[in-house]
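Title: Prediction job returns without error message
Component: structure pipeline
Severity: low
Priority: P3
Assignee: unassigned

Description:
Job completed but the reporter wants confirmation the result is attached to the right record. Sequence as submitted:
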Amino acid sequence: MTTEECPPWLVVGLGNPGPEYRDNRHNIGFMVADVLAKRMSARLSRHRRAVAVVGEGRLTLGGARIVLAKPLTYMNLSGGPVAGLARFYKVSVERILVIHDELDLPYAQLRVKRGGGEGGHNGLRSISQSLGSREYVRVRFGIGRPPGRMDPAAYVLTNFSGVERKELEFLIDRCADAAEAVIERGVEWTQNAFHGA
């Protein structure tokens, strides 16, 4: 089967729409999706069948076709647009990749996995419920635990600190690299390449 005949990958960056959320920890998925859109030379625009902005393209000449999406519902309702796009583009759950923030990882640590639980992440819970499956790939970007007794729900809506922002652009690029690696080389190769770093 040629890359033309292969179904596309659906790559979803999670976040909340609106300028007030743009730099929040919870919006790391949107930030990585914007980097991938630039690499693909894809313009993200409103999709006619889903509440999301979507762009299509390839990361490399002759590479896999990619549908890149940022749901425009709020985080907790991300599942509807993801399931709708999967149906529209005829993408099986095994070819869905979701990029999201992860409280249970130290800041900047990346982890890639297929399936598993949602770890209290409401965006993932919504996607799993809407797809009827947890067997999609996740690229998880560590944002660390909230300080002291701060509510995690409030913490994810804070912006990265000045110290964190110094290397954030590099880390977002690295997260985009991991998403590319999953598509081009597979989950296991990506885990071996990125989990030790």
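Comment from assignee: result matches the submitted record. The chain is about 35% helix and 20% strand.
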